[in-house]
Write a structure and sequence with these properties.
The protein has 326 residues and is α/β, with parallel strands linked by helices. The chain contains 8 helices and 19 strands. It has an 8-stranded mixed sheet. Strand 4 (63-71) and strand 5 form a beta hairpin.
């Protein structure tokens, strides 16, 4: 049973299904669905997608990019070449989820993870709740449960694999359509500035004159004198406004563009902090395990890789058990 059909969960489900494992994949939202993210695909994501056999399909939809542009607080710039692209998560996650289903995973959504089923201290399945909260929860028995439920901690807390409720960081992003900026913003731009401290801003070009623009604050929660994690006194909308003031491309993008929908925020779980990665019968992958990169908030490639690694661990154990039975 794979809980969560984002990059980590879909990568795990596809890997397992391709190996002949019987897989059920669930998500609490029906697909396609929106996801707050920078949408940047850096080399680790490309490698993982090639391994999963979905790279060509993703790149047929994505905006290719040649450089990551890092902009320092005083304006210095470094362009780092690489295999890069941008694809909104609504499209990317649908491709990955379909690929898992095409490999043989059985996808069910919306279906929410409530708690694990346990037998003698080992996880042996999960209790799940459908969209209709009035209906009785259902149970699925499974030899392994892979938890890939993202940064929101409710599922991890219920499964007993979350050491802290608060996130490592927070982010706010929106989509802006501005045809005049096509050809002017062509790189993955990440900017640091004293007005954004302790955060950063980004602009990533999508297709059709649409740009993903946002701000993030790493280490947004600190321990107080009593050992409790408290959020810093940071207003993300104010950080976003400051980004559009101090970074000229952001200012031009917003002044001459049309915001598509609302600015949306989301938590980040970074640096493998605050989560346990396993317990008997259960493995954790993706942002639920804190796999997102703290410096820039990039997490898609890490989610894909950890999903594949978790699946490969299960497959190895499955094959060893077959050898023992033989």
């Amino acid at each position: 049973l794979v809980v969560g059909a984002g990059p980590a969960g879909s990568a795990a489900a596809r890997t397992l299904a391709r190996a002949g494992v019987d897989v059920v994949l669930i998500d609490q939202q029906a697909f396609p669905r929106d996801k707050v993210c920078g949408d940047g695909l850096i080399p680790d994501a490309h490698r993982a997608m090639a391994k999963l056999g979905v790279l060509d399909e993703v790149m047929a939809l994505a905006q290719p990019v040649k450089h990551l542009r890092c902009i320092a607080p005083r304006g210095g710039r470094i362009d780092v070449p690489g295999t890069l692209a941008v694809l909104p998560r609504r499209q990317l996650d649908l491709v990955l989820c379909r690929a898992a289903a095409e490999a043989g995973a059985r996808m069910h959504a919306p279906l929410r993870f409530i708690e694990p089923l346990e037998d003698a201290g080992r996880v042996v399945g999960a209790r799940l709740q459908g969209h209709d909260e009035d209906r009785a929860p259902r149970e699925i028995r499974a030899r392994w449960v892979l938890l890939a439920s993202g940064a929101v901690p409710q599922a991890s807390l219920a499964a007993g694999v979350c050491d802290r409720r608060t996130p490592s960081g927070v982010a706010l992003r929106g989509y802006v359509k501005n045809d005049a900026m096509v050809g002017r913003i062509t790189e993955l731009e990440v900017a640091w500035h004293r007005r954004l401290k302790p955060g950063y801003g980004w602009i990533f070009p999508c297709r059709d004159g649409v740009f993903n623009i946002g701000v993030g604050v790493a280490q947004s929660h600190r321990r107080d004198a009593l050992g409790r994690h408290r959020m810093l006194d940071v207003n993300l909308r104010e950080v976003f406004a400051a980004f559009t003031e101090v970074h000229a491309p952001a200012r031009e993008l917003m002044e001459g563009g049309t915001l598509l929908g609302e600015l949306k925020g989301a938590p980040l779980r970074c640096s493998l902090e605050g989560a346990r990665r396993s317990r008997p019968g259960l493995l954790v992958a993706g942002e639920a395990a804190g796999s997102t990169y703290a410096l820039t908030g990039e997490g898609i490639g890490k989610a894909l890789e950890t999903g594949v690694l978790a699946a490969e661990a299960v497959i190895e154990g499955w094959r060893l058990s077959l050898d023992d039975d033989a």
